[in-house]
Design a protein that fits this description.
Layout (H helix, E strand, L loop, with lengths): L1 E5 L9 E5 L8 E11 L3 H4 L9 E2 L4 E5 L7 E2 L5 E6 L4 E6 L8 E4 L19
Parallel strand pairs: 6-9
Antiparallel strand pairs: 1-2, 2-9, 3-5, 3-8, 4-5, 7-8
Length: 127
């Protein structure tokens, strides 16, 4: 249902994004990314690596590295997908927020909530 391809939105070293390989109707779960959680007090070690820009908050006391395609979705303040933390399954579950057409890049809001337009760390200091 999804694949990783070169993204025009990503200006990082890798320029990757996640794209739909078929139409995905609104509300459909299309990816369950397994997580490797770690206590927040260990995050200082991750901050010294490239992974710091890819981890997710995972509850109040943990941060998580997402496996699968979980850490490859690009950001948008008008996303076509959203995610929920699934503590029972130890996954982050990704859903279509709107209908997503085959070939379309799948975007999430890095703030965690679809309508949250708070500035993000990579935009700090930019106007």
């Amino acid at each position: 249902m999804i694949e990783v391809k070169t993204s025009k939105l990503s200006d990082g070293e890798f320029n990757r994004g996640v794209f739909a390989t078929q139409d995905i109707p609104q509300g459909t779960i299309f990816h369950e990314a397994p997580v490797i959680p770690f206590p927040n007090e260990e995050h200082e070690h991750i901050e010294k690596t490239l992974l710091a820009d890819y981890v997710f908050e995972y509850g109040e006391h943990h941060t998580a590295i997402l496996l699968g395609y979980g850490m490859l979705f690009n950001h948008s303040y008008t996303p076509n997908a959203h995610y929920d933390l699934n503590f029972d399954n130890h996954t982050v579950d990704f859903y279509a927020h709107t209908d997503i057409a085959a070939g379309e890049e799948i975007l999430i809001n890095y703030n965690g909530e679809v309508e949250n337009d708070d500035p993000l760390w990579f935009n700090e200091g930019k106007e």
